[in-house]
């Protein structure tokens, strides 16, 4: 079913992005791995190739729109089409509003929000031209709740959720599928902070492959089925 499918995954060098790339490749999808650091991307691509899959590492920065435009062009030239884009790349911040670093906040908004906007903008015309395509955005439950400890990260995730719903209403009539996955606590470097460690005392985090399997599940639904929003939590997570 997936032999001729092609997927782009951003933030694919580690964590959820790497797990998603491996999970999709195991299902027969050809994957293009995007991230800023070549070495982790190459390691993921090597693992996928060792399992018989097809993976291309494409280092680059999603804050650079020209890079994403070129990535879309090169992917279509190489494979003939793009079926799936998984905007997953993100950075984290766990500072308070009165002591946080505004320079880092700027970076966070650029990556988490502008990077998402740029990724969608770069690939959307191709999807519309094809008459099909699927964006599965990996966001967070932090885009649906508020709490003390991660105010700027929470802000960026709320922005993602709002943008994706606007996107859904605009492009669904054009044949493009839109989905958003909102995980709770996941075992990634994002939770290596005092608040994350405190939550881990009572909650066993999700594994990155738990999220990856959900992305695959959404993607493999029949053509006439769209799972728009899927929230997932560790068993004991209340927030």
Task: Compute the number of structural domains.
Answer: 1
Shape: globular
Output the CATH topology: Rossmann fold
Computed CA radius of gyration, to the nearest angstrom: 17 Å
Quickly give the CATH architecture.
Answer: 3-Layer(aba) Sandwich
Straight-line N-to-C gap: 37 Å
Number of helices: 7
Keywords:
globular, alpha/beta, 7-stranded parallel beta sheet, 7 helices, Rossmann fold
Your description of this structure?
The chain has 239 residues and is of the alpha/beta class. It is 46% helix and 15% strand. It has 7 helices and 7 strands; from the N terminus they run E-H-E-H-E-H-E-H-E-H-E-H-H-E. Strands 3-2-1-4-5-6-7 form a 7-stranded parallel sheet, with helices on both faces. Strand 5 (134-138), helix 5 and strand 6 (177-183) form a beta-alpha-beta unit. The longest helix has 29 residues, at 102-130. The model has no long low-confidence stretch (mean pLDDT 94).
Topology (SSEs and partners):
Blueprint: E1 6-10, H1 15-26, E2 30-35, H2 38-50, E3 55-59, H3 65-79, E4 84-86, H4 102-130, E5 134-138, H5 151-171, E6 177-183, H6 194-200, H7 208-219, E7 229-232
Parallel strand pairs: 1-2, 1-4, 2-3, 4-5, 5-6, 6-7
Short characterization:
With 239 residues, the chain is α/β, with parallel strands linked by helices. The protein has helices at residues 15-26, 38-50, 65-79, 102-130, 151-171, 194-200, 208-219, and strands at 6-10, 30-35, 55-59, 84-86, 134-138, 177-183, 229-232.
């Amino acid at each position: 079913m997936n032999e001729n499918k092609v997927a782009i995954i951003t933030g694919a060098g580690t964590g959820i992005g790497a797990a998603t790339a491996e999970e999709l490749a195991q299902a027969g999808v050809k994957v293009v791995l995007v991230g800023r650091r070549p070495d982790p991307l190459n390691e993921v691509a090597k693992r996928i190739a060792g399992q018989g899959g097809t993976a291309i590492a494409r280092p680059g920065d999603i804050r650079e729109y020209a890079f994403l435009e070129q990535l879309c062009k090169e992917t279509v030239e190489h494979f003939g089409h793009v079926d799936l884009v998984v905007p997953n790349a993100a950075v984290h911040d766990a500072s308070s509003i009165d002591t946080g670093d505004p320079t880092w906040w700027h970076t966070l908004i650029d990556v988490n929000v502008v990077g998402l906007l740029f990724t969608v903008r770069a690939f959307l015309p191709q999807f519309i031209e094809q008459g099909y395509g699927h964006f599965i955005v990996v966001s967070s439950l932090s885009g649906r709740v508020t709490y003390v400890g991660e105010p700027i990260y929470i802000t960026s995730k709320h922005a993602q959720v709002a943008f994706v719903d606007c996107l859904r209403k605009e492009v669904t009539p054009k044949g493009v599928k839109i989905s958003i996955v909102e995980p709770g606590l996941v075992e990634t470097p994002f939770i290596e902070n005092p608040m994350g460690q405190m939550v881990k005392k009572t909650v066993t985090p999700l594994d990155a492959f738990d999220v990856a399997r959900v992305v695959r599940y959404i993607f493999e639904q029949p053509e006439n089925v769209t799972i728009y929003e899927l929230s997932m939590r560790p068993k004991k997570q209340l927030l």
